[in-house]
Design goal:
Layout (H helix, E strand, L loop, with lengths): L3 E2 L16 H13 L2 H5 L1 H35 L9 H9 L1 H33 L7 H18 L1 H23 L20 H8 L7 H4 L8 H30 L2 H6 L3 H5 L4 H31 L21 H17 L6 H25 L12 H18 L1 H21 L2 E2 L4 H16 L13 E4 L7 H11 L5 E8 L5 H17 L5 E7 L2 H11 L9 E5 L6 H16 L3 E6 L11 E5 L3 H16 L8 E8 L2 H18 L4 E6 L5 H9 L4 E5 L7 H11 L6 E5 L6 H5 L3
Parallel strand pairs: 1-2, 3-4, 3-6, 4-5, 6-7, 8-9, 8-11, 9-10, 11-12
Antiparallel strand pairs: 7-12
Helix pairs in contact: 1-7, 1-10, 1-13, 3-8, 3-10, 3-15, 3-16, 4-5, 4-15, 5-6, 5-13, 5-14, 5-15, 5-17, 6-7, 6-13, 6-14, 7-13, 8-16, 13-14, 15-16, 15-17, 15-18, 16-17, 21-22
């Protein structure tokens, strides 16, 4: 069942309307998430473990990946109107709704669970600072979650203003750190295995400190001008964060010894001019991150609901409130999720997986920008241009960091994203926007066509079938046979010839779409081609002459038999066969078609006339049938008629030797005529077969009489295929191994 995701499902933000600016809507939430608890509680440990130079290198490598991601985000944001949903919206409009949803759903839960992580962290720090605090960590975390959500429900603008106060607390703590003093040597014991931590392990601990740029991007639907604010605010936050992170190690390494930095998580409190300002900074960092997540998560959820990605019973989450289209219902829903997670308590087991989802989002954004830039599609015209190879380098950096942080969590996140992608793909959600996938396929097809040799290659031959079936419902047996021969590895084109002037262009397109949908619902992968002509013969000849591109032409024409008594109609039918032969297209004619192909066939009879003529192609077709599911248990029987018993022994030896070299598992049967006509032998020997393959002579001046006699020989027999190998290809080389 398919559903449609309309382009209008996300609200368009008018640049002239009220909304958040660059500083309040992007820079503030991004920088506050970057300057988080890792800076206050783990940065000293990083410096103590690595020393000053390696710490600065870690900061530079980590920030470089985030900066490249920021550049990719800026390129995408300046190319398209970014609506509610932030990163999800960008990905879905670039790489398709399946990829967007596969990343967007985990991203929503990662942001929702992050609120719980931050509020629990805030509660723990308060209880540690005030040991006699009268409530438990869980109760305080629940109260903090409700308070943070109340700010978000009141309005995004008020929540942003609250972050200004938090930013002031963080700035105050940094000023107190700059004007601080040397810390006395710690009395805490040094941790065991000090110095055994690798460079990459320490980088993995620090890297989450620079992953805050999504907080601003997720506010895209509330910005006055997303195309301006997202690049400026995101890159400014990354730059300011880098300067701060490069400065703090200088202070820490000069004011505390390595053992103190490693052993005391609150070493900054001892260094700062006013030690309690560091506590204010820690609290501000956790609360600001919680606010940023509770603002961003419902907006991603709103966009997912509006694009019909969520199940129908959750589509109400797409409703917005007021002129700013705030996702109040989504915020209430997110509050319920967060409260449930807070009650569970310990999130250490899932925290690594959440980090993987954020990094997966970074990686996919870089891939999207890299592919768009590489394809150079005329529709991709960002005002902020980034070299495509730089974006793909950022994607590789994200993958490397993910495995360095936690390989198991990386695999778990990849499995979850893949499962969601496959689920969305099965739902066949239709969109009204294009994405980069068509551009990728076009580039690959172009490269493939230019590298396909003009001359047929026996080693890589596959049937590319032009099926002259007309309406599929009338000759479905032809399409079934084509599918059994190709197994979705060759190409099938279902062709229908319309009387000239019978349908206008719009009606033809509707008919083409109807046939395509009919085939897709039955699992048939095929092209559909309609052509207007005065009669069937003229249209078929036009298709044979003109259909295809470059070296990729149908090499085999599949058509049904004709039973008409009309001499003119038979003449036109033979013209089609003659045209196929002249154009060097193999001919496959299905005679005595069943209502449907046999469900459990047992035997295919191939009437043998030698390997060099039609025999090679007949054997290949029989082998291709047997490699499919329907014909898998079938026996291929090569039948040869000889005049007497003396010839039978020599023929048996030669045929058995040939079968051994072909490696297709066929059986041989030599039939001695003993004066009997071939018609009688054919009827008696193949009456119980499920399918018969017979060679077809070259169409010449006597072909009409020849074909009518062939029809008489095969009347009332099981389904029979007439085969004429007309392609300029040595099919014997395809079959023989030496």
């Amino acid at each position: 069942m398919t559903s449609r995701a309309p382009e209008s499902s996300s609200k368009v933000v008018d640049p002239n309307s009220s909304g958040l600016g660059t500083f309040g809507g992007v820079f503030t939430p991004s920088i506050l998430t970057i300057l988080g608890v890792i800076m206050y509680l783990r940065f000293g440990w990083v410096v103590g473990q690595m020393g000053l130079v390696k710490t600065l290198l870690i900061v530079t490598i980590s920030t470089a990946i985030t900066f490249i991601t920021g550049l990719s985000i800026s390129a995408i944001a300046t190319d398209q109107v970014v609506r509610a949903g932030g990163a999800y919206y960008m990905i879905s409009r670039s790489l398709g709704i399946e990829t967007g949803g596969a990343v967007g759903i985990p991203l929503y839960f990662a942001q929702a669970f992050s609120v719980a992580l931050y509020t629990i962290g805030f509660a723990e720090s308060v209880i540690q600072a005030f040991p006699g605090f009268p409530v438990t960590i869980t109760v305080l975390a629940l109260v903090t979650t409700v308070a943070v959500t109340a700010l978000a429900l009141k309005s995004a603008d008020i929540a942003i203003k609250a972050q200004y106060v938090i930013m002031a607390a963080i700035i105050l703590s940094l000023i107190c750190l700059v004007f601080g003093h040397a810390a006395p040597p710690t009395e805490l014991p040094a941790p065991e295995n000090t110095g055994d931590v690798s460079f990459w392990a320490v980088l993995a601990v620090f890297f989450p400190a620079v992953t805050g740029i999504m907080s601003g991007v997720n506010m895209s639907g509330d910005l006055k001008d997303p195309k301006k604010s997202i690049p400026m605010g995101t890159l400014a936050a990354v730059g300011v964060g880098y300067l701060i992170y490069m400065s703090i190690p200088l202070l820490l390494s000069s004011r505390a010894d390595a053992n103190s930095l490693i052993a005391d998580p609150l070493i900054m409190r001892k260094i700062a001019f006013w030690g309690d300002s560091i506590l204010l900074g820690v609290w501000g960092a956790t609360l600001s991150s919680a606010i940023g997540s509770i603002l961003g998560a419902p907006r991603v959820l709103q966009a997912l609901a509006r694009d019909n990605i969520l199940p129908k019973r959750l589509r109400w989450l797409g409703y917005g409130h007021g002129p700013s289209d705030e996702p109040r219902l989504g915020t209430w829903f997110t509050l319920g999720v967060v409260l449930a997670v807070v009650c569970i308590g310990d999130l250490d087991a899932i925290a690594p997986v959440l980090t993987m989802f954020f990094l997966t989002t970074y990686m996919v954004l870089n891939v999207a920008a890299g592919i768009e830039g590489f394809l150079q599609s005329p529709s991709f015209r960002p005002t902020f241009r980034v070299p495509w190879y730089l974006s793909l380098l950022g994607a590789l950096g994200c993958i490397a960091i993910m495995f360095l942080i936690n390989p198991a969590a990386t695999v778990a996140a990849a499995v979850i994203v893949l499962a969601i992608y496959l689920w969305l793909e099965r739902r066949e959600i239709r969109t009204t926007w294009g994405d980069v996938r068509q551009g990728i396929w076009l580039s690959l097809v172009r490269a493939g066509l230019l590298n396909i040799a003009d001359n047929a290659d026996p080693k890589n031959w596959r049937p590319h079938l032009l099926v002259l079936s007309g309406a599929p419902t009338k000759r479905w047996h032809l399409i079934e046979l084509a599918t059994d021969l190709t197994h979705n590895r060759g190409l099938i084109t279902v062709a229908s010839i319309l009387p000239r002037g019978a349908r206008n262009l719009k009606q033809q397109e509707q008919m083409r779409s109807t046939i395509r949908d009919y085939l897709e619902k039955r699992g048939i992968q095929a092209f559909v081609k309609l052509i207007e002509a005065e009669d069937t013969s003229t249209g078929a000849q036009q298709l044979i002459e003109t259909y295809g591109i470059g070296p990729l032409l149908p090499n085999t024409v599949l058509l049904g038999d004709t039973e008409t008594d009309d001499a003119e109609a038979r003449r036109r039918y033979f013209q089609i066969i003659t045209k196929c032969h002249q154009a060097k297209r193999n001919i496959v004619i299905l005679r005595n078609p069943p209502s449907q192909m046999p469900r459990m066939p047992q035997r295919i009879d191939v009437w043998w006339g030698g390997l060099q003529s039609n025999g090679g192609l007949m054997l290949i077709l029989a082998y291709l049938l047997r490699t499919g599911i329907r014909w898998r248990s079938v026996d291929i029987c090569l039948k040869l008629v000889v005049s007497n018993q003396a010839a039978a022994q020599a023929a048996q030896t030669n045929l058995d030797k040939l079968i051994d070299t072909l490696s297709i598992g066929a059986q041989s049967k030599i039939i001695v005529a003993e004066g009997r006509p071939f018609d009688a032998i054919l009827r008696r020997s193949s009456a119980t077969a499920d399918l018969i393959l017979m060679g077809l002579a070259n169409p010449d001046e006597q072909f009409a009489e020849y074909y009518m006699s062939l029809q008489q020989k095969t009347v009332d027999l099981p389904p029979t295929i007439f085969v004429r190998a007309a392609e300029d290809l040595a099919f014997s080389e395809l079959l023989q191994k030496d």
